[in-house]
Design a protein that fits this description.
Length: 566
């Protein structure tokens, strides 16, 4: 029987096969290919080594895209590090898919660089270790940045392409600026319970070496699962502090004498109480404002008007009106999103801005038109909700502080009160119902206390009870800063570690006593300056104020208070 033609074995020509691991390695770029099928080898060479594929006969020269055109050589400045970083940025920063790196067009751009630099081809496989290395460098940078600092933790959940993602950010001060770092974007594959969210958060924090004692505040929306997550983290902090207290008690119990162990226990008890009281859960101000708006829309039965306007806008965004608007250089009306109230405001505003044109264009359309009463509603809605729209946009500022939010909130309330129409007053009423959870937060009060735009003598927006609560919190924060820096002593108390015995040099004893006395005076001065802030004159409100820079300059000579703004 005649031998039938056998398939050509490509493995030996194109790949080196490891008999133990049963993996094939490309002879040119050393890429590992787990498949040992001929079509897999051929596909790899066609995608990454087209010239060699033609030479080996894997593709007919007629099928190739003609002869290689003569191209003019040019000199460019490029090194390997810059080239690799640029490719990584395309994928990680600009969202280029990994598969695009394998496309013929991208290979046409990348191959000349890789040949000139004499480096292996960067493709969808080889770029992955590079991404891991860059991620490790970013992680190490974040770990260095947050060492010894208090951080503000921020959590949010979003759904994109049917995937539920948990975003975990931290915010801290660096060189007199607020810095935001993303610790992780985690896909949630279980129900969004507080327990599941807390476990993911704790895992990420542990991965970055961030302990619970470093968390100054945690900011979430008003969802019940998020609020419960904050409570669970606070419970974990309480348990940790209790363990520290018990360990300290057991250590002090081994020491001789009755008086000294009791003093150590008291100090540890104070420290535990301080740590527990520093942590605070802050609700998202933008989300709280949105809830106040939704309350107003529900109570005033405005939803039906907004639904009618939305249906009208959908009609305008289709043919033939879409082309008519485009031909006259008029932007299409904005379509609102149900989960973003300010998009409803933007939709109404876009209609109001072009009312005359749109009304004339649709006046003879029996299906797509708005009645005069609906146009009146649009005008009233835009006027009544404008202060809230301004507030919502302002709350998205990158360098927004808690005291900035405090001012913006009161400014919105005053604007609504001044307008004195039905919508504005109803919205104002709902803001005041929602605001206690924001304005009575100890972290917010502490930020407002050190801001002379808010806290000054006879301030109408900052009362004595708020001052007292803020001052207590600030004292605990300053105490905790001292403990984290290793001072381990409250302000105004001389350090016992610098005491000298009577056998030492009398001059040394005199100098140490003087140093302790001076430090005690300086600490007392720090507290006095904090307590006397309410007696200072009001700082005038101006546009584009940078309150962090102002406060850091003001407290520069007071090291412990100044550390609040570093």
């Amino acid at each position: 029987m005649a031998n039938r033609g056998r398939k050509r074995e490509l493995g030996a020509d194109l790949f080196e096969v490891n008999p133990e691991t049963k993996e094939a390695q490309c002879n040119i770029c050393k890429t590992i290919n787990k498949s040992r099928r001929n079509f897999s080898y051929k596909r790899h060479y066609l995608n990454f080594h087209r010239k060699e594929a033609i030479e080996l006969g894997l593709i007919n020269e007629e099928d190739a895209i003609g002869p290689e055109p003569k191209v003019k050589k040019m000199k460019v400045r490029m090194d390997q590090a810059t080239y690799e970083k640029s490719v990584v940025d395309l994928v990680s920063v600009h969202g280029l898919s990994l598969r695009t790196l394998n496309s013929p067009a991208m290979r046409c751009l990348m191959n000349p660089y890789e040949e000139a630099l004499n480096i292996p081809a960067i493709n969808s496989v080889s770029v992955k270790p590079m991404l891991s290395d860059i991620a490790g460098e970013v992680k190490s940078k974040i770990i260095r940045e947050v060492t010894g600092k208090f951080i503000c933790l921020k959590l949010d959940i979003a759904t994109r392409l049917d995937r539920d993602m948990l975003g975990i950010n931290i915010q801290f001060m660096k060189r007199k600026k607020q810095v935001v770092r993303t610790l992780g974007i985690i896909q949630l594959k279980q129900r969004h319970t507080a327990k599941v969210i807390k476990e993911e958060v704790m895992r990420v924090l542990q991965n970055y070496g961030i302990d619970l004692e470093s968390i100054y505040s945690i900011t979430t929306d008003n969802g019940s699962n998020m609020l419960l997550t904050s409570e669970l983290i606070e419970v974990d902090l309480d348990e940790l502090l209790e363990e520290l207290h018990e360990e300290s008690c057991s250590e002090s119990g081994d020491e001789d004498g009755d008086e000294k162990p009791q003093r150590v226990d008291d100090e540890d008890f104070d420290r535990t109480d301080e740590l527990r009281n520093i942590f605070s859960a802050v609700r998202c101000a933008a989300h709280t404002a949105q809830l106040a708006v939704l309350d107003t829309l529900k109570e005033t039965n405005m939803r039906k008007h907004i639904s009618a306007i939305k249906a009208f806008v959908k009609y305008l965004r289709k043919m033939p009106y879409k082309n008519l608007l485009k031909s006259d250089n008029i932007n299409k009306p904005v379509l609102s999103c149900d989960t973003r109230w300010n998009s409803a405001y933007a939709m109404a505003k876009s209609l109001q801005d072009n009312k005359q044109y749109i009304a004339n264009m649709t006046k003879n359309d029996k299906v797509c038109h708005l009645s005069e009463s609906e146009w009146d509603f649009i005008e009233a809605f835009v006027h009544g909700f404008k202060p809230m729209a301004v507030l919502t946009n302002a709350l998205q500022a990158e360098q927004l502080t808690l005291s900035d939010f405090y001012i913006l909130w009161f400014r919105c309330k005053l604007a609504l009160k001044k307008q004195n129409d039905t919508m504005s007053l109803k919205l104002l009423q709902n803001m005041e119902k929602r605001e206690p959870s924001l304005l009575n937060n100890k972290a917010v009060l502490a930020a407002a206390y050190v801001d002379q735009r808010i806290n000054y003598k006879q301030s109408p927006i900052f009362d004595d009870d708020q001052r007292a609560a803020a001052l207590r919190h600030l004292k605990l924060v300053l105490r905790r800063i001292s403990l984290r820096k290793g001072t381990d002593q409250p302000q105004g108390v001389p350090r016992s570690s610098q005491s000298v015995n009577s056998d030492e040099d009398p001059l040394e004893e005199f100098l140490v006593d003087h140093e302790n006395s001076f430090e005690q005076t300086q600490s007392g001065s720090t507290l006095e300056k904090l307590e006397n802030l309410s007696l200072k004159p009001r700082l005038k409100l101006t546009e584009n104020q940078n309150i962090i820079e102002y406060e850091s300059r003001k407290w520069a000579r007071i090291k412990k208070c100044g550390s609040l703004f570093q």
